[in-house]
UniProtKB/TrEMBL annotation, chain A:
<dbReference type="InterPro" id="IPR041614">
    <property type="entry name" value="DprA_WH"/>
</dbReference>
<dbReference type="InterPro" id="IPR036388">
    <property type="entry name" value="WH-like_DNA-bd_sf"/>
</dbReference>
<dbReference type="InterPro" id="IPR003488">
    <property type="entry name" value="DprA"/>
</dbReference>
<dbReference type="GO" id="GO:0009294">
    <property type="term" value="P:DNA-mediated transformation"/>
</dbReference>
<comment type="similarity">
    <text>Belongs to the DprA/Smf family.</text>
</comment>
<dbReference type="Pfam" id="PF02481">
    <property type="entry name" value="DNA_processg_A"/>
</dbReference>
<dbReference type="Pfam" id="PF17782">
    <property type="entry name" value="WHD_DprA"/>
</dbReference>
<feature type="domain" description="Smf/DprA SLOG">
    <location>
        <begin position="77"/>
        <end position="285"/>
    </location>
</feature>
<dbReference type="InterPro" id="IPR057666">
    <property type="entry name" value="DrpA_SLOG"/>
</dbReference>
From TrEMBL, chain B:
<dbReference type="InterPro" id="IPR004482">
    <property type="entry name" value="Mg_chelat-rel"/>
</dbReference>
<dbReference type="InterPro" id="IPR020568">
    <property type="entry name" value="Ribosomal_Su5_D2-typ_SF"/>
</dbReference>
<dbReference type="GO" id="GO:0005524">
    <property type="term" value="F:ATP binding"/>
</dbReference>
<dbReference type="InterPro" id="IPR000523">
    <property type="entry name" value="Mg_chelatse_chII-like_cat_dom"/>
</dbReference>
<dbReference type="Pfam" id="PF13335">
    <property type="entry name" value="Mg_chelatase_C"/>
</dbReference>
<protein>
    <submittedName>
        <fullName>Magnesium chelatase family protein</fullName>
    </submittedName>
</protein>
<dbReference type="Pfam" id="PF13541">
    <property type="entry name" value="ChlI"/>
</dbReference>
<dbReference type="InterPro" id="IPR014721">
    <property type="entry name" value="Ribsml_uS5_D2-typ_fold_subgr"/>
</dbReference>
<feature type="domain" description="Mg chelatase-related protein C-terminal">
    <location>
        <begin position="406"/>
        <end position="501"/>
    </location>
</feature>
Amino acid sequence: MMYEYWLAAIPKLSDKKKMLLRKKIGTGKDIFYIEETKLMTHEFLNRDDVNTIMQAQKSRNLEEDFQELRRKNIRFLPHFSEEFPKKLLEIPSPPYALYVKGNLPPEDRKAIAIVGARKCTPYGEKYALEYGEKLAQCGISIISGLARGIDGIGQRGALMGKGKTFSVLGCGVDICYPKENRGLYADILEQGGGVLSEFLPGTPPVPQNFPRRNRIISGLSDVVLVMEAREKSGSLITADMALEQGKDIYALPGPVNSSLSQGCNQLIRQGAGILITPEILLEELGICGFPDTVKIDKNKKVLETTENMVYSRLDLYPRNVSSLIEETALSANEVVEVLVSLELKGYVREVSKNYYIKLK
Amino acid sequence: MSFSTVLSASIQGLKVEFVHVEADVSNGLPAFHMVGYLSSEVKEAAERVRTAIRNSGLDYPARKTVINLSPATMRKRGAAFDLPIAVSILISLGELPQESTEGMLLIGELGLDGSVQKVPGILPIVLEARSAGIRSCIVPKDNAAEGALAEGMSVVGVKNLEEVFCYLAGQLHLEAQPYPERGGGSKKEELPDYSDIQGQESVKRAVEVAVAGGHNLLLVGPPGSGKSMAAKRIPGILPPLTMEESMEITKIYSIMGLVENEAPLIRQRPFRSVHHTATRAALIGGGLMPVPGEISLAHGGVLFLDELPEFQKSVLEVLRQPLEEHRIRISRSHGSYIFPANFMLVSAMNPCPCGCYPDIERCTCTPGQIQHYLGKISQPFLDRIDICAEAPKVKYESLKNRKKQESSAEIRERVCRAREIQNRRYVGTTITSNALLEVKELDTYCRLGRQESKLMEQAYSALRLTARTYHKILKVSRTIADLEGSEKIEEKHIKEAIGYRTMDKKYWGR
């Protein structure tokens, strides 16, 4: 296995060529000891590739590097190994190998990806959290990219639903990017989920890695949910790849004037499924049975008149206190007072200073 | 008579130290020696004094002159010793009798033509002289009105050395400067008014509460939303200064040489707007011989920091201690200096580098950029800000519909009433406003009823408040109750105060 790792770790040699090498020559060990003249006979290798391999053969601390992986609790899974996810072998250009911390998504369970914009609105946040939680409760693995915004929130939701969630990274699995998701990274592993990547441990998060990792996110999932996306965004790349791989795509509809919902609405126009509630989604996927379905009677709110005046003007897009003052014709201190009492009752939340959204 | 001594004084930090200027003129090779731990501007007095004496129509014979400024261990700076040196030489030369300067303090800079120039620090020196039992002071004419603020002291303003000579010789009578009426009828400056601001009710209200209780304020909002406009109108609603406060502030300004002779007494609370390129020393004071900085010049008034995140982080952090202790201690190897710094901090900032957040439609910043921008302000610094308000983008309608807005005078009236209530409540203590309440005093002055306690308890857990935020909310609700003239802090006061709390760092930008 040490030699396989050596082969996988050769930089500047594409996955495709590595796979061909293995097919034509044999195991990693054979390739490690092969002579230059023999390599030259293979047409798919050009002069540079041969040089790269010869250079790599001179590597001294092969054993040490391999032990290092063990020490970091990182599993090395080449594409021909038993544990390598079968789903990934079916996609166009599968990764040559995966590096895994923790577990891989169980093959016998459905896996759903939740993806979306990094900079999202409270609207997207709310539903990413809700879908993450409810789907995880039904035993579905939630796949995402640990990114800021929708990705991380969806995974956080899955953890709240006591489920398993798996992060596919655009850097080495030993690096937590973005750093502020360190807590999430640790919790995912603790709750039996996993973090995986096709990049060597220690690879920094460079921009060109991310579109590549997106194909793995969709590849590992059966269904891809897009919560919020701009018209040109990474989430839509994931959706395109999912289409290519023949996966189902669902999008969360949003207001037509919100640029963050334009990507989603566009997907729906092109025929993606519409996310209405997690229950409907589960029904469509043929999974049923919520552990507990709690229904909140939305009409049973006991609010005072002034509270109602303010509350009825709020929605999931942040509203500013000053605009509320103008609309309600209440005084500044009254509006602030009412908002705080609504916040204490759990009806609204202050998302940024003096900007409020409706919660229930 | 060859030996003489004349009393003068110098400023060390904010303290006044008396200096005895001694002169001895004796036979020997013509020379001029000055001793007494002098900085170079004091040493240069030699040339000024000799020339000034000659140019004043007096004779200066070629003899050996020794000048000593005692106490000799104290570092002396500034040009204010010129006049006392000249007078002591004249006494030594026998031109004036020693008794002529008895019980008198002299201070002033000399020009080569013998004219007496203005110097900084007159007011504190004259006040200190008064308490030391000195009867009269001779000061530059341009500082006379300032000196006369010390009632009961005979302050004589002089134009040139000749005048001083004649006065001391008894050949000329000079009237002591009269006490300036109401501080010299301080110029009524045209202050900008809150009625200029259309809409922005929430910001105006937050400013009113902050001023009423002396709370530190942070205004957040996109560019052009009127944050600076709102801040610059604060002087118009600040409560008037008491005589005591006026004198204290004037003393600091006098040391910095910022007092105007026409209206020496500072009757308006200072409003110091500091640019974000300010250094640490400029802000808190400093130098080898420390001089007060902006925070001391804002003593009793407002320190305004616009574009808060643009300040160097280390500059903001040095503000933490003075914000807590309301004074600043600057330590040097030769001693430490304490400057008062009881100011209200008003700061303004954009919510993100482009200024549009949380309007995601228009904001072009990445989450990382926003975090980085907000991260420039540390949590301990935010903890010292009691009230945070958001100034939203100005709507077109409010630009068009020019409704009659409340004037600063009306707001000021309410602020003054609230301050009076506080003054009455804190009589006999060192507290001057609600913002200065210490944690242990909150139990006494911010007592809550049962219902109100329950509300606070609920808020504490529901909003995940910290202990510090909890105390800040109590203080601010005290002020809101005072604004309403209510002795009891009611639920609505607490709720409004909660609405003004500063967001905890971790919720910023999310």
